[in-house]
Amino acid sequence: MAAPKPNTLAAFQAAKGFMPVDEGLALHDAATDAAALGLPLLEVGTYCGRSTLLIADAAREAAVTAITVDHHRGSEEQQPGWEYHDPEVVDPEVGLMDTLPTFRRTLHKAGLEDHVIAIVGRSPQVARAWGGPLGLVFIDGGHTDEHAGGDYEGWAPHLAEGGLLVIHDVFPDPADGGRAPYRIYRRALASGAFTETSVTGSLRTLRRTGAGI
Ligand code: SAH
Ligand code: MG
Q: How many Cα neighbours within 13 Å face the side chain of 82?
């Protein structure tokens, strides 16, 4: 599978975010595979655009569009006082997290702005307003059952047959992290509509091979 462009990879490594390089390369492979369907590639959980860059690189190559959804106010564990908080991404005027400006800089520096549509909103609400089929659904949003479950229920039905569902932070062992992403991964497999195609760290790739999500 084609590698990301060297300047995309350099921008990825310089970007704030939560994805190691091996998982990023697996995400890029999945996005490249899915882009062959000629449909948009969707991400839930933009944050500062680290993973978005790799999806956008694959989208540019195949002349499709990457779509990334986030309310940009951060997940539970990113709020002030929590483990993954970064004070650099707080809007001093409103006193809340705002990762949108950093995301836009990330995308601009990588020269990928023309290949991405950023949607600012809550994932289930955006999913309800969404109309068309998708080639890729990458779930990397909130880690509670409510949020991960809402991402799966909202977006998986929009995935075209042959398209790829990629889930980040899948930890079968509770000692490694929260298990909401693992539970939606199990749900996807139990639905009978997906076949697993790859495992890289906590990143799981499943192909939609049937109906009945
Ligand atoms: N993909 C990013 C990391 C995403 S972190 C990277 O590679 O670095 C998770 C993001 O999900 C946060 O930015 C948070 O604001 C967003 N998020 C959490 N719950 C959400 C929801 N219900 N709707 C939209 N965005 C959500
Ligand atoms: Mg993640």
A: 10
50 within some domain:
yes
Q: Is 105 among the domain residues? A: yes
1: in domain:
no
Evaluate whether residue 178 is within a structural domain.
no
- Annotated active-site residue 28? The verdict is no
Q: How confident is the model at residue 212 (pLDDT cuts 50, 70, 90)?
A: confident
Spacing, Cα 152 to ligand 2 middle (Å): 15
- Stretch (H or E) spanning 73: none
* pLDDT score for 198: 98
Give the nearest ligand 1 atom to 121 CA: 24
CATH code of the domain in which 74 resides: 3.40.50.150
Q: Which domain holds residue 37?
A: 6-166+184-208
89-136 pLDDT, tens digit per residue, is 999 999 999 999 999 999 999 999 999 999 999 999 999 999 999 999
Retrieve residue 152's tokens. Answer: 């799966």
- Cα 102 to middle of ligand 2, angstroms: 17
Chain-centroid distance, C-alpha 90: 22
Q: Give me the number of domains the chain comprises.
A: 1
Provide the β-strand partners of residue 97: 90
Q: Which residues line ligand 1 (CB under 6 A)?
A: 17-19, 45, 47, 50-51, 69-75, 99, 122-123, 140-142, 147
Q: Which residues surround ligand 2, an ion (CB under 5 A)?
A: 18, 140, 168-169
CA dist 61 and 151 (Å) reads 27
